[in-house]
Amino acid sequence: MACPFIDDVMDEEALILRRAFRRERFFRDRSDPLAFDDSHLYERYRFCGDGICYLCRLLGPKIQHRTSRSHALTIPQTVCIGLRFFASGIFLYAVGDAENLSKATVCRSIRQMYLVLKGFLNIFITFPGHKRTCFIKEEFYKIAGGPNMNYRLQNRVTFTVGHYSLFCVTGFPNVIGAMDCTHIRIKRPSGVHEGDFVNRKSYHSINVQMICDADCTFSNVEAKWPGSVHDSRVFRASTIFQRLSQGEYAGVLLGDKGYACQPFLLTPFADPQTAAQHTYNLAHARSRARIEMAFGLLKSRFQCLHHLRVTPERACDITVACTALHNIACLRKERAPRVALDMDWDNEAIFQDNVNGRLVRDQYVANYF
Predict the structure, then answer these.
(1) Listed residue (266, 294, 291) closest to 365, CA to CA
(2) DSSP letter (8 states) at residue 125
(3) How far apart are CA 58 and CA 112, in angstroms?
(4) What is the pTM of this model?
(5) Residues of 323-346 as b/e, b for ≥16 C-beta within 10 angstroms?
(6) What is the C-alpha separation between 86 and 80, in angstroms, rounded?
(7) Neighbours of 250 (CB within 10 A)
(8) Sheet strand arrangement including 252-254
(9) pLDDT digits (tens, 9 = 90+) for 180-230
(10) How far apart are CA 301 and CA 337, in angstroms?
(11) For residues 3 and 80, what is the distance between their CA atoms, to the nearest angstrom?
């Protein structure tokens, strides 16, 4: 019998053998984005097949075309166009080339997506979170300490300050959220207010305030301020500041040294003097690091937030939409991306600490550290 691996084999038995070992080709419907496996979908859309189907059911009534005239996009196509842009942050024509669509169609689909997602903001982003407040406080307490001595001893951290040798095994109690601001880079806006969007690093951005829980799920977002506005001023003008100052929530937030210390917002000691104050600062830093991790997860999951080539108003809407999608992904236990911590610079405080805030902080040191 002739060798079956020679191109010009004419032997009938060799042809039969080739057909027996030939793998049958499978043609996928490329117009249906859900025809691919979860790994393929996650790399391009940051959601698996079940997650995309969930988004289709959630957003379908709002984005569905009334008729099928002119080859109208299906719901999965519209959802996947928006997700591909959020996940990659590439130019619109590049998204169109990937999806075999025109740039105008891609632009309309993306705008439709983020406006509909913005309407679900109060459902997926709620303060203090989707869990009971006592569970949120317990999870924050476990970060720097633990519920029992075995956990605390296994996770203790030793550090030396001067002649002090300290163990951080004390959790930070009564915390309902970690807060900070992050800058979303945008293209240079036109108009007389262009200079307002130049931040301390000399590029144009919007300053977005966010609060997260111990699971890096966002519980509050304020996306409407230019990059030149100080973090503390954003907080003082926010709705959450008014609600906290009125005692609506039983708990405290953790913020960096750029904020003024308040009874409901605890900041670290600028110049700790005692061992208890050093321990307080370490527990504070470990607990507040959750917001930095959340920023890293958000921007790694949705790469468009590294640079939005849109107007400030649209940048705010896209940021809110990505935050809602991030929470949906966290609640559905979607695969988390590889994270590089998004470490923004620390602002210098512009407001004096509240006297009652300092008293509350001193009581924390005396009672827990």
Answers:
(1) 266
(2) S
(3) 14
(4) 0.84
(5) bbbbbbbbeeebeebebeebebee
(6) 10
(7) 12
(8) 218-226, 205-212, 175-185, 252-254, 265-266
(9) 999 999 999 988 889 999 999 999 999 999 999 999 999 999 999 999 999
(10) 6
(11) 48
